[in-house]
From TrEMBL:
It comes from Salvator merianae (Argentine black and white tegu). One of its GO terms (biological process) is cyclooxygenase pathway. Keywords: Endoplasmic reticulum, Fatty acid biosynthesis, Fatty acid metabolism, Heme, Iron, Isomerase, Lipid biosynthesis, Lipid metabolism, Lyase, Membrane, Metal-binding, Prostaglandin biosynthesis, Prostaglandin metabolism, Transmembrane, Transmembrane helix. Heme binds at residue 418. InterPro entries: Cyt_P450, Cyt_P450_CYP7A1-type, Cyt_P450_E_grp-IV, Cyt_P450_sf. Its EC number is 4.2.1.152, 5.3.99.4. This is Prostacyclin synthase. It is found in: Endoplasmic reticulum membrane. One of its GO terms (molecular function) is iron ion binding. Belongs to the cytochrome P450 family. Pfam families: p450 (PF00067). Its cofactor is heme. GO terms for cellular component: caveola; endoplasmic reticulum lumen; endoplasmic reticulum membrane; nucleus.
Length: 477
């Protein structure tokens, strides 16, 4: 290394370096490195040098740095190809993001929220498989992931029939969304290994078959015939056509987008519901807030025809529960390729050199999210951590005596921020409100432990549990 570069840890195995630990449990590896080297260091992994920055006060130096110096698109393109066989000529991630953002936010959000509400009802309340008045055992992860992915898929990719209340259309939506979800779930098991190119020959075969099944289900020809397609879908399709993408590649890109849009919200609902079931004071506070909202609008949950954006925006307790859930369970990497030798100045004035060709990685999960200097007992779920004593949202958190701009980053940040954040929040809220209003839910074993994380998933967004948690549920009388 050259003078002025961050401390380098090459591990014991030449070239491979820390690759194995990185894939197995990146949080553990980076925490160990932080103890050894401090809040900036470089690790070698499979021939690549990855500089990891863990000081949230210094994140702005990376998040807003120009694309000509550190680039997001290059690594994104590698993953798109490895995971989804997507190769787009002249692909510019910033241009695409700006275009799709409009379709998911601001004036387009209320219509998406409304469609999500109808689709959640279709898969949750009107599905005879789910909605029975007899107690039924189910894995909470399975229930949360399938409900959110099926309804999310119908909302973005369209319905069988324009009229949401048409019974035969609903039945087709239930069956088709379930088929898509089952294949999507299978695919999701292999994606981490695909991203790291560590699938065995047998796994690769299964992975390729699952992708083929999904390409059939999501073929652009099929999607063209669907009713209530979202503006997001039509904008994306048009964008692919403008890039001159052939039809097969358009279909592959549709699968990539299914994962970007449906991979995180279901796991978020799982952790949130699990924390509510394990912490009765949190459950009580959320239910009291929810009932209050209906009471002031003279509605009962049973008469719920719609949860307006205005209703969804007046839930500070739920918002704190969600922030706390995501603080504990969202662990994306923010990754950039260093395109030229360049200086990096930390917030406290330390200066480093970054080397062209290295990769730069922020991991907000370690700091700020799990940093004991910022959060007391960071490993514990405290539902009101993001509430001030007057009931407003708490935004003041400190490290080293200085107020933090980035105190939790489940949605990424800067150029890498999630464009679906508002839609995800309104969807998660609607799903939890519908489940709590229409169903009795309880843990099958009240002493069931909160499961550990599937550690291979550090870096890829929402974490998933090592194993599912069984609950009992039934439609309320
Ligand atoms: C709890 C739920 C969610 C979480 C925690 C989350 C988090 C994130 C994060 C961290 C990124 C940045 C990834 C990166 O740049 O490396 C991202 C990107 C993205 N998210 Fe979300 N997301 C969620 C739900 C959603 C939903 C529901 C949608 C769409 C309807 C969505 C659409 C997207 C898209 C399209 C991108 C890629 C943006 C780009 O081109 O850079 N997300 N999300």
């Amino acid at each position: 290394r050259h003078p002025g570069e961050p401390p380098l840890d090459k591990g014991l195995v030449p070239w491979l370096g820390h690759a194995v630990e990185f894939g197995r449990d990146a949080a553990k590896l980076f925490s160990n490195m932080k103890r050894k080297h401090g809040d900036i260091f470089t690790v070698q992994a499979a021939g690549k040098f990855i500089t990891v920055l863990l000081d949230p006060h210094s994140y702005d130096a990376v998040l807003w740095e120009s694309n000509s110096k550190i680039d997001f698109g290059q690594y994104a393109r590698i993953l798109m190809d490895r995971m989804f066989d997507v190769r787009l000529p002249d692909y510019d991630s910033n241009e695409e993001k700006a275009m799709l953002k409009m379709a998911l936010q601001n004036k387009n959000l209320p219509s998406l929220t409304k469609a999500m509400f109808f689709n959640l009802r279709t898969v949750l309340i009107f599905d005879p498989q789910t909605a029975t008045q007899d107690w039924k055992d189910v894995g909470l992860f399975h229930l949360s992931y399938s409900t959110m992915s099926r309804a999310g898929y119908l909302t973005l990719y369209g319905n069988e029939n324009k009229n949401y209340s048409d019974m035969s259309g609903q039945a087709k939506d239930q069956a088709y969304s379930l088929e898509v979800y089952k294949e999507f779930f299978k695919l999701d098991r292999y994606l981490m290994k695909a991203a790291r190119s560590t699938l065995s020959a047998e796994e690769k075969k299964m992975f390729d078959n699952t992708k083929k099944n999904l390409w059939k289900l999501l073929s652009v020809k099929r999607l063209d015939c669907r009713a209530n397609r979202s503006l997001w879908l039509d904008t994306y399709k048009q964008h692919l056509e403008d890039l001159g993408t052939v039809e097969d590649m358009q279909t592959k890109a549709m699968l990539l987008q299914l994962w970007s849009t449906q991979g995180n919200a279901g796991p978020a609902v799982f952790w949130l519901l699990l924390f509510l079931l394990k912490y009765p004071s949190a459950m009580e506070a959320v239910q009291r807030e929810m009932e209050g909202i209906f009471r002031t609008r003279k509605q009962t949950p049973g008469e719920m025809h719609e949860l307006s954006q205005e209703m969804l925006n007046s839930t500070p307790i739920f918002d704190s529960v969600l922030n706390e859930t995501l603080r504990l369970t969202a662990a994306p990497f923010i990754t950039r390729e260093v395109l030229q030798d360049m200086p990096l100045t930390m917030a406290d004035g330390r200066k480093y050199h970054l080397r062209k060709g290295d990769r730069l990685c922020l991991f907000p999960y370690i700091s700020p999210q799990m940093d004991p200097e910022i959060y007391e007992e960071p490993e514990k779920f405290k539902y009101n951590r993001f509430l001030n004593s007057d009931g407003t949202e708490k935004k003041d958190f400190y490290k080293g005596g200085k107020k933090l701009k980035y105190y939790t980053m489940p949605w990424g940040g800067g150029i890498n921020v999630c464009i679906g954040q508002s839609f995800a929040i309104s969807s998660i809220k609607q799903c939890v409100f519908l489940l709590l209003s229409y169903f009795d839910l309880e843990l099958k074993d009240p002493n069931a432990k909160i499961p550990g994380f599937d550690k291979e998933r550090y870096g890829f967004g929402m974490l998933q549990p090592e194993e599912d948690v069984v609950i009992r549920y039934r439609l309320k009388a």
